[in-house]
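User: structure tokens for this one?
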Amino acid sequence: MSTHWFKILIPAIICNSLLPVSAENITELSGKDCRAMTNAGVISAAAPVQCDRLRQVRFDYIDFQGRQHNNGSIIVMDAVSPYIAAIFERLYQLQFPINKAQPIRHYQGNDDLSMADNNTSAFNYRPIAGKRSLSLHAYGLAIDINPKQNPFVKLGEHGGASFKPEDGAKYANRMQFRYGKEQRRGFAEDVVATFADNGFLYWGGFWNTPIDYQHFQVSRIMANLMAAMPADHASQFFDNYVLWYQSCKASYPTAYAQHKVNDYVYYLETKLNSKPLSKTFTLSPGKVIAAIQQPLQTSAICVRD
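Assistant:
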């Protein structure tokens, strides 16, 4: 596919103040919060991001009984916090139900306990389940939403499947509407676009195995890059990331509907003729920072081959 740039310039930065959230909903972690996380095993000195790069996002939500709550709380990386706040504001507007949302330190960092309690959560310094490599949760760049309705499903070699949490097995059938049965709500499928439009394009429901319906994240290259960047550059990078995706969505609606929009990392790697972008930043941070400070240009590169 041609990578010639069309001369359609779009602003380089989305001003966070334009997002439909209040700054009061996003706060730095207190010393008390950080100590509680450390004592619970949720963070340590080895974590790729420390408390100074994390933010607590508070939000209102509606539960599965239609009751309103004003105590939703989730911890994420600073650069994405305005967009996470925007996501949960949109879920509230849509009356998308959330069972519970509290930081995972309340479960001593135990992901299984959090899932069993159907808790929506984000930051947790831990490896990927069953592996040694770090989960994107360890960067504050992954969200698990309604684990019961959106279980983690591991498929066996001979067709068997295991579910986390276990009672998530009743939601193996992903049909929201079924003859003779009540409508099922809180499915991640209903909010894939909301997460993608705010920078969280990568959904565990797209995976072959395991299938992680509850899980939304950025790419690993992004996580490594944003953790290495100073906070202000990481914020500018993510602003551009969201703006690039939204521009591609407007210019190429069919590709958007088919989940075939390339992300901003691919745009920069192509523009700089160097990848992976995180390695480029390690070798030449000024080169990457200069690139993200240039106006964006929409092009055919929006569409994945």
